[in-house]
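PROTOCOL LOG
Step 1. Enter all chains and additional molecules of the complex.
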Amino acid sequence: MSDTPDPVVARNPSETVASFDHHSRGALDRVQHFLHRYPTMVPVIVLVLSVAAFGLIAPNFFSAFNLSLILQQVAVVGTLAAAQSLVVLTAGIDLSVGAVMVMVSVIMGRLSVEWGIPVPISILIGLAVGAATGALNGALVTRLKLPPFITTLGTWNIFLALNYYLSNRETIRSQTLDAEAPLLKFFGERFTLGGAVLTYGVVLMIIVFAVLWYALYQTAWGRRVYAVGDDPEAAALAGIQTKRVLMSVYVVSGIICALAAWSSIGRVGSVSPTSFFEANLESITAVVIGGISLFGGRGSILGPLIGALIVGVFNSGLRLAGVDVLWQLFATGWLIIVAVAIDQWIRKISS
Amino acid sequence: MTEPLLSARNLVKRYGRVTAMDHADFDLYPGEILAVIGDNGAGKSSLIKAISGAVQPDEGEIRLDGKPVSFASPLEARRAGIETVYQTLALSPALSISDNMFMGREIQRPGFLGKWLGMLDKPAMDAFARQKLSELGLMTIQNINQPVETLSGGQRQGVAVARAAAFGSRVIILDEPTAALGVKESRRVLDLILDVRSRGIPIVLISHNMPHVFEVADRIHIHRLGRRLCVINPKDHTMSDAVAYMTGARVPEGIAA
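Step 2. Run joint prediction.
Step 3. Record the structure below.
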């Protein structure tokens, strides 16, 4: 029936046109398939091109000092982007990561300075609070079945309010931290590596990504995270306890937010309840530019690291080139749109 | 006659006022292909869901190897050796063939790496997946690590069947395995089904496709109005007989109207 080949079509005079069409699609097809297989190549190419371009137009861009400065600048948002990536891989989104980070930094600072609790214990409590915020988000998503966007829109406001309440809207000054809790500023400490000046915050970011890479690609947990994000119903029928996987993702994400909080204290030098107000959106930006699909289950965990670096490179390059700050926003905006458009295009392969 | 491997008696399932199963019976014998056919709404999917653990019957009894069993979830049925290939296949399109084969039952490395770091034994998993696919003649698939979404419909079906057959299961349930496939691919899947039977694993085949059913089934279970109407031998009946029984246009011999 429909399977019988129709000879009329084969001899159609429009055949040459059709084969031309097919040929040009063939080249594009290959690009599509390549990107489908290596989704991280998009941000890698963008990063390489933008570094090369700014190296040409911006004076001093290529200095080791400037490149290491970019790393320092993206360390906190990059770490936060790692937390965000996990949630996005499950087809969720976490608007509360920034608020969790600031709240936990306030908790670590307050406990150490006002309450006189030993700093390591304050840090552990901070990490536990981070895990608890993740557990709250995870419980709302898995038990009450609320959409992650709405859940975290709610908890974002809640954590922000708690942050102001706990901090009394007061900043803990740098000198106070130096005197009473220098360990909180650990990730801001610098060391040199062949002309580059790095902070331990940069090292933390890289370690977080390395550990996540291992967990996502080399353990059963990671494969399940991808499966749940890809198609939750299929994953459940294949015998995965999807709720448990989702819950673990939110808890791990919360712990990483708490690590980012510790790192942020070192970066800012003080504990300020009003810092990093846009960190949640910046983390989503890094994730999207890094090629992780907002529809879940697709993309490499190393993408967001590169995505954060791209934003850093654009900001630094445009500033060194003497361009008005507004164009940094403008460029970032287009990067997001292009990244999502490419993701949509790559995803068409499956249909 | 031998004892049924899997049987059900008097299964009842009500959804509010709707009775999806009305004292339904079911028998599957070792080594056979049993087709389950019935009109839409006859309750055959409820029956299959009860056997595969996706639905819990309100009344009745299911026996596996003569022992009563009750499955609270598909996972429990799977642990008991009942593998189901759903119509949707339950594959993760973005993950590799190997990942999909082992979804939910991954192999970890021996020793420290596996025990403490949870490291997967990818070489072992890939080798096992490759072996299972080639056993079922599916080695036209070149790369065990290619994403499932790059496979054709028939190949995907093949991966899902291979996954079910790979884990030494007692029973394989196939839900409409050829519904989404073309003629050639259907052919491959039917061969695959016969191949699995030749390994001694009994198969429950749910299908609307009469030619396929009559070609591969040893016995045909006809479901009507929430219960088993009859079981026929495809050699003794024609397709139009089966359709007539299914729709109620005719009543099989020996059954009170």
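Step 4. Note key features.
Strands of chain A lie at 190-193, 196-199.
Chain A touches chain B at residues 1-3, 36-37, 214-215, 218-221, 223-224, 226-227, 230-231, 233-235, 237-241, 297-298, 349-350 (CB under 8 Å).
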